[in-house]
Amino acid sequence: MSLRTTTDVDQAVVVLRSEGLVALPTETVYGLAGDASSAEAVHRIFAVKGRPASHPVIVHLPSAQALDAWADDVPGWARSLVEQLWPGPLTVIVPRSAHVMDAVTGGQPTVGLRVPAHPLTLEVLERFDGGLAAPSANRYGRVSPTSAAHVVAELEPFLDAGRDVVLDGGPCRVGVESTIVGAWDAVPRLLRPGAITTGQIRDITGLDVVTADDGVRTPGSTPSHYAPRARVVVLGPDSVGDLATLAGRFDQAAVLALAEVDVPAGLRRLAEPADADEYARLLYSALRDADDAGIDAVIAVTPPAHGVGAAVADRLRRAARAGDLS
Ligand code: TXA
Ligand code: MG
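Above: the input record for the complex with magnesium ion. Below: its predicted structure, written as tokens.
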């Protein structure tokens, strides 16, 4: 029996209520969702991903009104943030309420919460009427899926075709994971860059955003992550240099760069995004394409670091650390 792919929200809700797993679309990337109050469902999420148990998962909610069912003592600035930006590509890490399982939080006193902006998944959340634990629907450390086909290619061998299902909501609009903000005290901490920028957070809260690295476990922040099988070599937008010489060090190199970056004739291009938004949207499928085509090195030129460009550069640098040239 092969894994079922559906667009039927009712079917997805039935699976979730019986503690099965649903890979579902969000505006950022596809998530692997299960009932956040079911020990069995959460356990299976970790098993399917091959993810260490100490790494917490985000709980997805139908609206900002559900915040207080999962969190205690949410700072006022974080409340303003979610009221303005949810549904949207923002996760807040807030003090958890007592009923939230240790399996969800990795035993930490905080929980990650988010309301995703995808119509199908919002409908699932409203009908399910609870929280859905959902990490990105990829194996641990690998590239996040941005289409239903990516999920099937990545997780079919690990999901239970008699029980689990993939909800197909088309390609993801943003393409990189949500911005994560630590919101457990008076200081907003940026834990993972995404489409919501520090400038937006500053404007809404009136507070300076600290880029934190204070021992909080954010596996998306471990050095080697979001990695394809191909080696990734990253160049800044102002240090493109001699692409042909660099490419010559590999058997089959390909370039990923904005359309405005000149690439020598004869050198393969994986994609030519017009701007940082398009770069984010196609980043992960381009990395998958590179693996499928037997490319051994992706030479990626980062877009300028404004808007979602900072998140694209962050993911590329982490992918690159899996196969550092030095
Ligand atoms: O865009 C997204 O956020 C996607 C979609 C599916 O919503 N989800 C996602 O989940 O990227 P995941 O598990 O792949 O990445 C979530 C990150 C992890 O690095 C996790 O460690 C961190 O959020 N996180 C979750 N709860 C946390 C907590 N209580 N404290 C610190 N970090 C936390
Ligand atoms: Mg992930």
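Notes for the reader.
Residues 135-136, 144, 220 surround magnesium ion (ligand 2) (CB under 6 Å).
Residues 276-292 form the longest helix (17 residues).
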